[in-house]
């Protein structure tokens, strides 16, 4: 089960996905709101925090989550503050009850990862792509439009047209033909 704990929060934050199951994981702790209370309301404990990338809006709450749950943090670059364990490109990682492949997808930020589960066809896209063909900013440090396009295309090679859920770093999750939104982002990123 995937639950966005930032839904309805009126603060500058990313989405915060609690993936409950055999291995309860928080995908991006977000920023600027109390995320610990809603975690405690839903689950007894966390097994890990997994980061799509380390922009402040995605990791501002990291310290409070680590303190509250005494949990390790996984991200692409373990030399960055707060990241305990590195995730290599194409590593397999369990979120909830399912196995995901971690895809290194730079272009928005160098340490950006997406997580894709072939079964049950779920993609955590971070800030790579969003609903309706939107895509991650490339005007921030480490941003690069051509690299972003290549990353989106790489994700398209992995995911299936039968993709069931697209969970993005901002905005609503997409459950109605999410593959089409990723494909549209690939086209839009080339034109912008």
Automatic annotation (TrEMBL):
The record's annotation in CDD domains points to: metallo-hydrolase-like_MBL-fold
Is Transmembrane set as a keyword in this record?
A: no
The signal sequence is none
Any matching Pfam family: Lactamase_B
Gene3D superfamilies according to UniProt = Ribonuclease Z/Hydroxyacylglutathione hydrolase-like (3.60.15.10)
| InterPro entries per the UniProt record, alphabetical | MBL_Glyoxalase_II, Metallo-B-lactamas, RibonucZ/Hydroxyglut_hydro
List required co-factors: Zn(2+)
Specify the Metallo-beta-lactamase domain's residue ranges.
13-170
GO function terms (MF aspect):
hydrolase activity; metal ion binding
Q: Would the keyword Zinc be found if you checked this record's keyword annotation?
A: yes
Q: Which UniProt keywords apply?
A: Hydrolase, Metal-binding, Zinc
Q: Which domain of life is it from?
A: Archaea
According to UniProt, the name of this protein is Flavoprotein
Q: What is the lineage of its organism?
A: Archaea, Methanobacteriati, Methanobacteriota, Stenosarchaea group, Halobacteria
């Amino acid at each position: 089960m995937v639950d966005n704990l930032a839904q309805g929060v009126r603060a500058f934050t990313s989405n915060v996905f609690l993936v409950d199951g055999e291995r309860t994981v928080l995908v991006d702790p977000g920023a600027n709101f109390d995320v610990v209370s809603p975690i405690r309301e839903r689950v007894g404990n966390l097994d890990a925090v997994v980061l799509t990338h380390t922009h402040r809006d995605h990791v501002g709450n990291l310290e409070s989550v680590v303190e509250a749950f005494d949990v390790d943090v996984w991200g692409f670059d373990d030399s960055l503050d707060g990241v305990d364990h590195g995730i290599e490109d194409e590593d397999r990682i369990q979120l909830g009850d399912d196995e995901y492949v971690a895809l290194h997808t730079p272009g928005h930020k160098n340490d950006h990862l997406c997580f894709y589960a072939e079964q049950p066809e779920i993609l955590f896209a971070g800030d790579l792509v969003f609903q309706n063909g939107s895509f991650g900013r490339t005007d921030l440090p480490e941003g690069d439009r051509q690299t972003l396009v290549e990353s989106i295309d790489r994700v398209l090679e992995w995911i299936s047209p039968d993709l069931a859920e697209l969970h993005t770093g901002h905005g609503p999750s997409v459950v109605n033909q999410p593959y089409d939104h990723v494909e549209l982002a690939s086209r839009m990123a080339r034109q912008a």
